[in-house]
Structures are given as C-alpha cells and as structure tokens.
Amino acid sequence: MKSTRRAFLKATGLATSSLFIPNFLKAFEMGNSSFNGKRLVIIQLSGGNDGLNTVVPFRNDIYYRLRPKLALGHDQIIQLNDELAFNKVMTGLADIYNNGLMTVINNVGYPNPNRSHFRSMDIWQTASREDEFLHTGWIGRYLDNECAGSCQAHTALEIDGSLSLAMKGHEVKGMSMENVQQLLKMTDDDFTLKVAHSDHHHEHEEVEYLYKTLRETVSSAEYIEEKSKLYTSKEAYPLNEFGKRLKTIAKFINSGIDTSVYYAGLTGFDTHAAQRGTQNNLLRKFSDGIYAFVKDLHKNNNLDDTLIMVFSEFGRRVKQNASGGTDHGAANNLFLIGGGLNNPGFFNESPNLMDLDKGDIKYTVDFRQVYATLLEDWLGSDSEAILNERFDKLNVIRS
Question: Which of 12, 140, 142, 290 has the fewest Cβ atoms nearer than 10 Å?
C-alpha cells in the first residue's frame, strides 16, 4: 500500500525533529507571507503563577488574613493605584506600567476550571471548552486560516527546542528553534545542502516531498540567518535562558523578519512550598527580561507594532498552605504590553476575595475573549473561524 506523506516523513525521523520540519514547511508550499506588520509575542509562565503575590491587593484585609506568612507587606510592593501594587521585585514591569505601555486584565479564566497543569494548559493552548479535547492550537488554527496561499515557514516561531500545542494546526504548524546557530546546524551537512541547492526532482512523490522539505528547510534557515545579521542588540538582557529567548525574538523583530507570532516561556511557577523566594526570583527574571525587551523594541521603533501577551495556566488558591506556598487555583491576571493599547492601566475590577469559588478567585473575563480581541483587532483574522465560537471582544487595543 502506498504510504502517505505524513507516514513517510514520520518514518524518516524528520517529523520528530526539534524543528518540526515537515509540519512548518507545509506553509512554504503556499507562497509568500501574509505578514501585516503586526507582531504578537506570547509569553507563557508555566506552573501556575500566583497572581495575588504578583499584582497585590495591598488594602484587602482578607488577603492578609488568609496569607499570614505569605502576604506581601507595604515595604515589599510597588504601589500602582489605591488598591493594587506590583511585587517589589518587578521594578522593570512597574516602569513599563507607569509609562502607559501595559494593560492588566484581572480575573481571567474559564467556566468549570480544571486544576491540573496539563489539562488546564491544553485548554489555554487549544482555546477549548473545559469538556472539549482538541488536537490543534489556537495559533495553529490561525495559521490554517491565514495560510491559504500566503504564509511562509517563519510566520509563527517558538523560541524553544520543541513546539507547543498552541502552535500546531491541522495543515500548518509553527516552527521551533532555540537560536539561529541551532537552526543552521540542523541543515549543515553535505547531503542536505546538495539537495537544497539542486533542481533535481524525483519520480516518486514521497521522495520528491522529502527533497522539497529539505530544500525549503535550508531556505528558511538561510533566510532567518541572513536577515538576523542586520541587527545586533546593544541592550543588556539578563544572563539567563529567558533573557536569551527574548533577545533572540528582539533580534528577529529588529532585523525585519516577517514573523507574525512569537512564542516563548518561563517555567517553575508551581510553588506549593517555600513560595516567597522561588516566586520572587522568577518574577525578577520575568520583569527584568521584559524590561530589556521593551526597551530594545522601543529604541528601534518596533514597539508600536508589537503586542506582548503574558499568561499562566491558572492562578493559586487565595489561602496559603501549611508549607509556605499555595496550591493550584483558578482565575488569574493577564498582561498585555505594547505601544498600541487603548487606555492602559487596569482593565477591570480587582479580584473579589469575599466571593470565592471553593477558595479560588472567580473568573469574570473568559480567556477566549482575550484571544478573540488579539486575533481580530491585532492580527486582523476571523476569530470565530479559529475559536469555533463567537466571543465578545475587549476594548483594549487602539483602533
């Protein structure tokens, strides 16, 4: 029986490479990029970041009563308004907020929240209902929707060694890479280069598709490598993995690579025990990295056309546990950062700590409303076709 392209590529081993070569190269078959000049950068805080010790309700007595040892005192915060403050380690983020470049959306979640890391992350990445199991991600379906004859491989890039479910569509998938050097190394062998730079065509469809895959992989690598030479950042990024990832994204943006969506993450937020020190270190990494990234884009006049969304799969419970930490919760805060925001600041009300859902913050904003807003008002796409349902948009992006 004649094998399918997918089966053939899987057998060759290419389908499981860190570049997801055959997946993202479907886009190359379709022609030129549909890049509209707007870039969306998605930052995932994995593990369930504690939103209450990130955006602190410092005038709320319930917060201090339920967290007698974990709550942040007035000397451990940066006040933003009469009710809310940032954790004191987030000086860079506070500067971004005070310069009108951030919108904080409180109480973001979904109905019947799931407190499993894996399931909740799947829900966020696929934009599914809590009782629905999808095998494609919301950005992947955006690619499917936009790439009918117009996308290139690098339309969506994840700066990591593997590709998140969020980036996988039915027909088109994002491309994952750790850095330019790793991308080039994947294609730097005599056979691959010989095939890539030849006009040879094979009579068998599967072999010809493999040759085409190799040619287009090298083409993508060479394009990114050549374009990224145009810019070298002079900004001082933190010397950690998260800082390196943001520096790579800034290099690509400032070099003019026509990528619509970037995806990167920071892990370690599952703070069941000894939360204070662990979370503070992570929030400092996050804040310092984003601060350098925003400065880099601003200096190169690329901030107005870049929108950063920061999310975590769930928040933590309001009450501290016996181990100096917090357990898995539900609704959380979400950050939008960039130069194209409408009325930056706090978008909505603070969490209501007097009205909890089994000890957790109740959601008042469905995360898919945020997605619908980004898809339509920023990326110019059809959110209903991508999310499989119509969600009310939020008035957060400048028209």
Answer: 12
For residue 328 the two structure tokens come to 């898995």
CATH number for domain 5-387, candidates 3.90.1530, 1.10.600, 3.30.43, 3.40.720 = 3.40.720
Q: What residue type is assigned to position 57 of the chain?
A: P
Dihedral in degrees, nearest 10, Cα atoms 166, 167, 173, 176? -140
**How far is the C-alpha of 393 from the C-alpha of 69, rounded, in Å?**
39
* Angle, vertex CA 267, rays to CA 265 and CA 273, nearest 5: 155
Query: 221-268: per-residue pLDDT in tens?
Result: 777 888 888 888 899 999 999 999 999 999 999 999 999 999 999 999
Helix (H, G, I), strand (E, B) or coil at 296: helix
Give the residue ranges of DSSP H helices in the chain.
Answer: 5-12, 21-24, 61-66, 91-98, 117-126, 138-146, 180-187, 190-196, 205-228, 241-255, 275-299, 367-373, 383-387
CB atoms within 10 A of CB 119: 15
CB-CB neighbours of 203 under 10 Å = 6
Positive or negative, the Cα torsion across 188, 194, 197, 201? negative
**CA separation (Å) from 381 to 167, 191, 258, 374, 392?**
16, 40, 17, 9, 15
How far is Cα 347 from Cα 362, in angstroms, rounded to an integer? 16
Of residues 138 and 13, which shows the higher confidence score?
138
Please, what's the b/e burial string for 139-169 (b: 16 or more CB within 10 A of its CB; e: otherwise)?
bbbbbbbbbeeebbbbbbbbbbeebbbbbbb
β-sheet bridge partners, residue 103:
336, 345
| Every domain of the chain and the residues it spans | 5-387
Judged against a pLDDT cut of 50, whether residue 368 lies above it is answered with yes
Q: Where are the alpha helices (DSSP H) in 178-232?
A: 180-187, 190-196, 205-228
